[in-house]
Amino acid sequence: MRYKIEKIKKFTQEELRESMEDAMEDAREQMEHQLEEGFLPEITVPLKYKEAISKGITKTSCWLGEGVITGTLVRKPYLPAGEKRILVRIKNISVKQIKPKLTGPERKYQNVVTFYGPISSQNIEIIGEIE
Question: How far apart are CA 110 and CA 83, in angstroms?
């Protein structure tokens, strides 16, 4: 009986992996289309780092335990309640520097993106302070 349960579990994980790969491929196509249409990703940065933005943006640790730069594309940016932040737009971005992020309970593309590596100060356009 135990063997059957393990076999079913492995099959389900394989299906899940294939489904995630398909979802990521669809998300990448959608993201690339948005970039081709001229939409630019946006990132919010805590106000206390306003001066540091002039040197570029680097990966920060997150609840996942890995360094990540996350932004949005064609949607409202992330704004924690009651926190003043700086909104920046990322210019001259290549599809090789950015990837879609599958989020939410359904693990689907909701116009959240992550960036590979640091973002140069030349590619940052400061939009202003937001709350």
Answer: 23
